[in-house]
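FAQ

Q: What does a record look like?
A: Structure on top, sequence underneath. For example:
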């Protein structure tokens, strides 16, 4: 059981724990021999680990070749501060080491949302059942009642390093966005509720194919080259083609909500919202992501100050 986590490390600490590999950089020489570095992680964060070897290049290369991305390593070394960032230093001594591990708990490396999974799936079913338009309801049922799809969707995080980056995060985020959309519809009842809820449930389905989860959250090759918006629009369009007599205008509307849910092209939206339902969906998505980030920043703050500075958010008041 992992007892030492990255968020708790301080300069000068002795490091003796398990870490998952996100990526590694090739061996290179330095003044005393050969070294390499790897970016490692657990459920609380990421840190760079640097191995400082001697002049035996073959030995250092062999250690480097002994592990790959997503492997779990037992690392012993020391926590040091370098250029304002904390890192783990590992030297060639009897006490310092890097060893690949086979026995570990995945939950130590990728956290899960606190909400009950069965409860969230029940909420998802209720939302689908509330949709009255037969074409949209069939579309939702065909997607979310597909066992292979839902088994991936239910555990997928909502992002790699941003909001709800936990197992079950995508489902939690999707439900939150749908509930915010329901509230917007209560304020603006002239909105097409069925279109709005369908858009909320489908806006991020591309993340099922964009992200990969093992001991780390990573981006797939398809996700890196195309992104979840394009992947999701294509996926939903293919599902629509399987439904007989699906109205063309309705198809374009639902695809537009997916393509425009990031709001602006500078934020990755291929199209900006042109429907009131698309505008509502964009701000519901933005609201949930931002609130989750602020809550996480407050929860993870380790200071007695009244404020912290977060590179994504700016100043966050803690009291």
């Amino acid at each position: 059981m992992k007892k030492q986590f990255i968020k708790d490390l301080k300069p000068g600490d002795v490091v003796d724990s398990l870490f998952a590999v996100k990526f590694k950089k090739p061996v290179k020489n330095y003044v005393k021999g050969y070294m390499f570095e790897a970016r490692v992680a657990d459920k609380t964060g990421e840190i760079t680990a640097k191995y400082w070897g001697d002049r035996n290049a073959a030995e250092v290369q062999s250690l480097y070749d002994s592990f790959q991305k997503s492997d779990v390593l037992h690392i012993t070394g020391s926590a040091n501060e370098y250029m304002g960032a904390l890192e783990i230093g590992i030297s060639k001594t009897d006490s310092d080491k890097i060893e690949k591990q086979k026995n570990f708990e995945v939950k130590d490396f990728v956290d899960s949302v606190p909400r009950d999974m069965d409860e969230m799936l029940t909420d998802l079913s209720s939302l689908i059942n509330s949709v009255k338009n037969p074409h949209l309801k069939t579309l939702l049922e065909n997607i979310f009642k597909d066992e292979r799809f839902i088994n991936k969707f239910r555990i997928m995080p909502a992002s790699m390093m941003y909001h709800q980056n936990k197992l079950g995060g995508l489902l939690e985020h999707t439900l939150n966005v749908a509930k915010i959309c329901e509230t917007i519809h209560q304020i603006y009842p002239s909105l097409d509720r069925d279109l709005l809820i369908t858009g909320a449930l489908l806006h991020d389905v591309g993340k099922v194919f964009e992200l990969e989860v093992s001991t780390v959250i990573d981006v797939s090759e398809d996700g890196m080259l195309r992104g979840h918006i394009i992947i999701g629009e294509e996926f939903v369009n293919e599902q629509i083609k399987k439904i007989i007599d699906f109205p063309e205008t309705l198809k374009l509307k639902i695809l537009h909500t997916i393509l425009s849910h990031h709001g602006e092209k500078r934020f990755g939206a291929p199209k900006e919202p042109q429907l009131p339902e698309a505008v509502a969906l964009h701000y519901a998505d933005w609201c949930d992501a931002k609130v989750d980030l602020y809550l996480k920043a407050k929860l993870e703050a380790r200071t007695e100050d009244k404020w912290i500075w977060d590179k994504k958010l700016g100043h966050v008041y803690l009291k």
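Q: Is there anything notable about this one?
A: The chain has two domains: 6-106, 117-300.
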